[in-house]
Amino acid sequence: MTKRYAVIGLGRFGASLAQELAEAGQYVLAVDVDADRVDELAQVLPRVVRADCTDPAVLRALRIPEFDTVVVAIGDNVESSVITVLNCRELGVPYLVAQAQDEAHGRILKQLGVDRVVYPQRDMGIRVAHNIATGGIIDYVRLSDEYGLAEITPPRTVLGKSLRELDLPHRFGLNVMAIKRGKRLIVSPRAEERIAEGDIMVVIGSAAGLARLEGE
Fold it and tell me: CB neighbours (10 Å) of residue 167?
C-alpha cells in the first residue's frame, strides 16, 4: 500500500531518505529552503519544492497535514528544526519523525511530541564501529542502548549446523530473523535450517551476545 511522505530538509540524510522512499514506490514530497538542493533533487524526484517550512502558512499550502508521515530532516539548524516541528504538531500531522543533531536536540524534539527521533550521524558511527571492531558484522542497527539488529557472517564453527543445534536464543540471547542465501531471503527460518557457507544471518539481540557468538 502506497503511503504519503513529506521530507522537509534535503541535506545528506533527507535527500537519501526521500530517494529511498520514492524508489520503494511511495508518494514523496521533498522540501528545502535551499535552491541548489532543490534543483539537484529535482533531477531524480518528481515532487521537489523550494519553501520555508518555518512558516505555518507554507505548510498549509503544501497540505502537509494530509501526509501519513512527515520527516523533519533539518539537522544543521536547531532553531529551524524546532520551529518546523512545532508547526507540524500544531497542524495535526499524524506521524512525525525528526532528525536530531545531538542528544540535547533529541530531548527537545521528544518534549515537543515527535513520534520518532533519529540520529543519523551517531547511528552511522555505531555501525562503522561495530564493523571495524567485529569483522563478522556486516551491518548493525541500534534498537536501544542494549539491543540491536545485525547482519553477520556466521563463524566457521556454526557452518553445517541446524538452528536447533546452535540454540542461539539460550546460549547467546540471539534470535535469527532471517538467512540470506545468495539471492534468496529465508524469513523466520525453521529450527531444522542448517547454516551454509556463504550465508548471511540476520539476528536480533544484545551487543554482548553478538560478541560472544563472534568469539566462537
Answer: 12
Alpha-carbon gap, residue 112 to 68, rounded angstroms: 19
Enumerate long-range contacts of 188-192, CB under 8 Å, 24 or more apart.
189/163, 190/163, 191/162, 191/163, 191/164, 192/162, 192/163, 192/164
pLDDT band at 137 (very low <50, low <70, confident <90, very high): low
User: Cell digits for 103?
Assistant: 542528544
64: its cell numbers: 502537509
Q: Please report the domains of the chain, with CATH numbers, ordered by start residue.
A: 4-118 (3.40.50.720), 123-214 (3.30.70.1450)
Which tens digit of pLDDT belongs to each residue from 174-196?
Answer: 999 999 998 899 999 999 999 99
pLDDT of residue 117: 86
